[in-house]
Amino acid sequence: MKDKRGAELSMNVIIIAIIVIIVLVVVVLFFTGGMASLTGKIKSIFGTQTIETSEAQLRCNTYCSNYESTQRNVYLDNFCGKETFDIDTNADGKVDKPDQTCSDLGTSCSAITCP
Question: How far lies 112's CA from each of 53, 57, 100, in Å?
């Protein structure tokens, strides 16, 4: 009876150790920026996420106003084409206009001049 209890304790410790290692890897990936590429891969597996033109233009306007107030290059880069949008023009859930940038959508920003 003592031998059986010892075997269960060892299996529990091994399972907990594996879970702890997985959680630590996820935390390290999150804080080092590795989650961005991981989430990109997951999104590519499950397909593209479409949005409407008005929502994409709203994001572009947000990038513009955030860049005007903070002068951070991340907003400039996103506005100038680092982030592209897969537009669904007829609400059927399929991409009608792939890889649209803010300038493709007709959004302008007085504070940003894209190269």
Answer: 20, 15, 17
